[in-house]
Amino acid sequence: MKVAKENAALAALDFVSDGMVLGLGSGSTAEIFLEKLGDRIAGGLKVSGVQTSERTRQVALEAGIPLLDPDRVEHIDVTVDGADEVDEAFHLIKGGGACLLREKIVAQASAKMIVIVDDRKLVHTLGAFQLPVEVDPFCLGVTARQVYDALLASGCRDGLTTLRQKGAGEGPLVTDGGNYILDCQCQEIPDPAKTADALARIPGVMESGLFVDLADVIVVGEVDHAKVLEIKRDS
Ligand code: 5RP
After folding, report:
1. In a domain, 79, yes or no
2. Cα gap 55→51, rounded to integer Å
């Protein structure tokens, strides 16, 4: 599947031009994009980036991509990021790599979000991939119960949540922002906007991995080419 990811990453470079500020996504597909972007920068392309995770910051620096201080950035032209699932309306599940909060901050601040995936990520209905929800560790049990209730009330087929662990015996995984991740076995999320809204009303939820109405372009990598799917949004 590496070649499909590479084809998606290369096709996404067509959306990049001199002078742009880029949101730099996280995950294995996004890292291939960073590598290819680094090659273009070495060849003379002039862009700068904003990372969505500590890991991406390191990979981007190694690839020679100039980074801006995220606290000083006010506008991002294009974000290129991966996803765990993509439905026909371009709604996404993200957060498999536990970076969803910063990924959403950057995507939402961007004029355009390009999602790079291989074709295994395309689904009819979101939810087979466990939905990551980033939560404040304080009163975790209360928040987990509220997340479960919100998932069922918003129409998901299941709501069982598991606290993501760092590794065997290493305790809970802590995100770059100091939060925990609840992985939610929804099975089916029939109305992603309703579920995202229900989760957003829970005080202990920092963000959910449901990206609704954020992706503008989906680049689907296959073994010998990439398909570019675009959606028109009212601005
Ligand atoms: C990280 C993410 C990733 O973009 C998502 O998990 C896809 O990763 P990969 O390209 O490795 O399949 O959301 O939080």
Report:
1. yes
2. 9
For residue 14, give Cα distances in angstroms to 34, 41, 47, 168. Answer: 14, 14, 13, 42
Sign for the CA dihedral angle at 216, 54, 101, 1 comes to positive
Question: And the tokens for 157?
Answer: 């087929």
Instruction: Name residue 163's beta-bridge partners.
Output: 182
Q: Say yes or no: 97 and 21 in one domain.
A: yes
Beta strands in 56-179 (DSSP E): 76-81, 85-86, 92-93, 110-118, 131-135, 160-163
My answer on whether 13 and 56 are in the same domain is yes
Is 62 annotated in the active site?
no
Mutate to test the pocket of ligand 1, among 94, 122, 134 (most ligand atoms within 8 A of CB): 94
Q: Is 26 in the pocket of ligand 1 (CB under 6 A)?
A: yes
Contact 144, 133 (CB under 8 A): no
pTM: 0.97
Strand partners, 180: 135
pLDDT at 218 over 70: yes
Asked, for residue 152, whether it belongs to a domain, the answer is yes
Please tell me whether residues 88 and 151 are part of one structural domain: no
Question: Torsion over CA of 117, 215, 188 and 178, rounded to 10 degrees?
Answer: 90
Residue 19 belongs to some domain of the structure: yes
Residue 165 has what DSSP assignment? Answer: B
Look at residue 146 and tell me if it is in a domain: yes
Q: What is the pLDDT of residues 91-149, one digit of tens each?
A: 999 999 999 999 999 999 999 999 999 999 999 999 999 999 999 999 999 999 999 99
Q: Give the range of the structural domain holding residue 147, as residue numbers without chain letter.
A: 131-207
